[in-house]
Amino acid sequence: MNPKIKICGITKKEEIPVLNEFNIDYVGFVFAKSKREVSVKDSMNLRANLNNNIKTVAVVKEPPIELLEEILQGGFDILQWHGSLKEETIKHINMPIWQAISVKDKESLGNIIYDEKIIGYVFDGSAPGSGKPFDWQVLSDIQINSELILAGGLDSDNIIEAINKIKPTIVDVSSGVESDKGKDPYKIKEFVRKVKNYGNEQ
Q1: What Rg, from alpha-carbon coordinates, does the chain have?
Q2: pLDDT averaged over the chain?
Q3: Among 179, 177, 135, which Cα is nearest to 156's?
C-alpha cells in the first residue's frame, strides 16, 4: 500500500490550490521558529481554503502554554510535537499527537514515548527543515504499531528509495518541494506522482 503524503510548512494562499488538486492527505502548519512559521490566525485563514477532507497538522517545538492553548482550541486534527514531551503535557493535550524524533543514531530511538494519545512518530533529521536526510539504516529494524512518518530531506529524487527501505505509512516533505519563492507546484506534482505511482516505477 502506498504511503500517504504530508506537505509541511504552508505559509500562503497561493500554495493551497495544488494541495487541493491532489487532495493531499495531511498539511502541516509550523508554529515554531522557522522561515515557515505562521500565526494560528493566519493558519486558520489558509485552512479555510483547503478541501474539507485534508487533515491539518499543527507543528510545534516545546511551545509556551499560551500558544499551546491557542492551538488546542484551533480545530487542528493532529499535534506534531518536537522536543521534550512530558507526561503531564500529554495529559493536558486533548488531541492526537505525532511525536517527532530527531534521528542521529539508534540511541535516538530511545526517546520514543508510548502513550495512547500518541498515534504516530515522525522520524526526522537532527536539523528539521534543513533538507538533509538522516541515515535511514537506523530505522531498518524498527517495529511500531502506530503511524511511521518519514521526514527529513525527502524529494522526488530519493522518495522511491526511502519508501523501499523504510516502508513508511506517511511521507512528510517540506524543503524538497520548495523553490526560492516557497512551495513549488511543479515539485509538489512530481513528488506526489512518484508516491502515488510507487510500485510501478521501481
Answers
A1: 16
A2: 94
A3: 177
Distance CA 156, CA 195 (A): 9
Amino acid at 75: G
Q: How do beta strands 55-61 and 182-183 pair? A: unpaired
β 170-173/182-183 pair status: unpaired
Evaluate whether 113 touches 85 at the Cβ level (below 8 Å).
Answer: yes
25-40 residue pLDDT tens: 999 999 999 899 999 9
**Cβ atoms of 55 and 78 closer than 8 Å:** yes
How distant is the alpha carbon of residue 125 from its chain centre?
Answer: 12
Q: How far is CA 9 from CA 60, 136, 157, 173, 202, in A?
A: 11, 23, 20, 9, 29
Is 198's pLDDT higher than 80? yes
Q: Which residue in 65, 55, 62 sits closest to 8, CA to CA?
A: 55
Residue of 15, 11, 35 whose CA lies nearest to 188: 15
pTM: 0.94
Alpha helices in 63-152 (DSSP H): 65-72, 87-92
Query: What mean pLDDT comes out for the span 139-159?
Result: 93
Domains of the chain: 4-196 (3.20.20.70)
Task: State the average pLDDT over residues 40-48.
Answer: 97
For residue 132, what pLDDT band results from cuts at 50, 70 and 90?
A: confident
